[in-house]
């Protein structure tokens, strides 16, 4: 060792310029993390904080968050960047984008990545993994996940003679409650009984009703749909009837983005929306509110929703390793619990719900556990090959139904025919 060291010192003295790179500090591994911002609350500040915390704990890694707009904008930007050779190394995209990302050949399965062992990937709720696995491989890690829940104004319930601690448990009760909650002054409706948004995520709201009516809208392989099933048509008719027959929901297409504000302004007494709005409602509702599972038709049910973490093929081996470390950091039970508390999204692992901070939070705010308790009734969100085309066919059909331009049977039959033309080649 002494001879080797002296020889090395001599070499350094003779050629100081050539030896300089050997003592230069290694450059940190950098990863770009694309993240959607079309969600309620100060999400960007939370994510910025996580990135900073991660870098402090891992000084050899730098994470650059890039906020990419809506989920739809985010998948478009990610695919465009990938095709142009400039893909992010990691992105949070809809769980339903899984088949699209696989078909485009731009992502790598987590099973192939160093450090992504089955002890970790197997620790998430099975309901969330339905939209995260296919073909025996794990493609997405559940992070920003949700289900649909009902929010209701307890003061409005009291005024209508309803028990403010009991939400409607069935479709029939939902109509009955909504009729009592609807207020009219002459021709004007000052408070609607219920509001289920019909744009932006109409397919998601409809899938909840279809699930409650005991029909699954797609198969596990993502190559068949059941839009024209008689029970799906019946579910669409129920949604339409809320406005045209029972007159307890605003007519036409109710906006996704304004529904929480309508709730805060007492224009509506009950609303369906994502549990990701929980913290938004908790912060901004000027009245006591309740959160409940969605009511049952033939059964209870809701699709899951929200975003998964994906790693892109273009990432170098070092970047892939860094992405796994970052994903594991984001989903640690303590952090996942705090994420759920800060945002309202469902902490995606049972371990997160067993942490002291989550137990304390639920004890003081039981509504936080409703989405988790609904998971046994949940199904995978609508996801197929060429998912955007298939979903658009269903969205167009639902909007034609809600605006009373086309009857449910005709509209959903057309949507099924359109989906079949897209999916036939994948079977």
UniProtKB/TrEMBL annotation:
Residues 1-19 form the signal peptide. It is found in: Periplasm. Keywords: Signal. It comes from the Bacteria. CDD domains: PBP2_UgpB. InterPro entries: Bact_solute-bd_prot1 (IPR050490), SBP (IPR006059), TAT_signal (IPR006311). GO terms for cellular component: periplasmic space. Belongs to the bacterial solute-binding protein 1 family. This is ABC transporter substrate-binding protein. It comes from Roseomonas indoligenes. The lineage of its organism: Bacteria, Pseudomonadati, Pseudomonadota, Alphaproteobacteria, Acetobacterales.
């Amino acid at each position: 060792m002494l001879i080797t060291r002296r020889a090395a010192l001599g070499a350094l003295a003779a050629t100081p310029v050539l030896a300089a790179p050997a003592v230069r500090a290694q450059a940190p591994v950098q990863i770009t993390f694309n993240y959607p911002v079309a969600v309620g609350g100060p999400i960007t500040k939370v994510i910025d904080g996580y990135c900073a915390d991660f870098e402090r704990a891992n000084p050899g890694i730098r994470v650059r968050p890039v906020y990419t707009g809506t989920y739809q904008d985010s998948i478009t930007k990610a695919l465009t960047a990938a095709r142009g050779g400039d893909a992010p190394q990691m992105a949070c995209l809809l769980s339903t984008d899984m088949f699209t990302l696989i078909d485009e050949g731009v992502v790598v399965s987590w099973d192939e990545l160093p450090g992504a062992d089955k002890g970790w990937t197997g620790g998430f709720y099975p309901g969330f993994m339905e939209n995260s696995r296919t073909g025996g491989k794990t493609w997405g890690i559940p992070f920003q996940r949700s289900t649909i829940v009902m929010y209701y104004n307890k003061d409005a319930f009291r005024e209508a003679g309803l028990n403010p601690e009991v939400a409607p448990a069935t479709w029939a009760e939902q109509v009955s409650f909504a009729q009592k909650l609807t207020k009219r002054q002459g021709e004007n409706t000052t408070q609607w009984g219920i509001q289920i948004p019909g744009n932006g995520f109409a397919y998601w709201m409809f899938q909840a009703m279809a699930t409650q009516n005991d029909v699954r809208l797609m198969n596990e392989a993502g190559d068949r749909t059941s839009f024209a099933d008689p029970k799906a048509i019946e579910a669409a008719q129920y949604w339409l009837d809320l406005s045209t027959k029972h007159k307890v929901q605003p007519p036409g297409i109710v906006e996704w983005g304004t529904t929480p504000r309508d709730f805060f302004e007492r224009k509506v007494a009950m609303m369906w929306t994502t549990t990701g709005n929980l913290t938004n409602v908790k912060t901004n509702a000027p009245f006591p509110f309740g959160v409940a599972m969605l009511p049952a038709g033939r059964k209870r049910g809701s699709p899951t929703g929200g975003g998964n973490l994906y790693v892109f093929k273009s990432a170098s081996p070092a970047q892939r390793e860094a992405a796994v470390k970052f994903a594991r950091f984001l989903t640690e039970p303590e952090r996942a619990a705090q994420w759920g508390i800060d945002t309202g999204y469902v902490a995606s692992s049972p371990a997160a719900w067993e942490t002291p901070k989550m137990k304390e939070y639920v004890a003081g705010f039981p509504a936080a556990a409703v989405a988790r308790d609904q998971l046994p009734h949940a199904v995978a969100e609508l996801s197929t090959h060429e998912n955007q085309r298939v979903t658009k066919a269903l969205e167009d059909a639902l909007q034609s139904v809600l605006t009373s331009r086309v009857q449910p049977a005709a509209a959903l039959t057309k949507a099924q025919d359109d989906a079949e033309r897209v999916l036939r080649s994948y079977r």
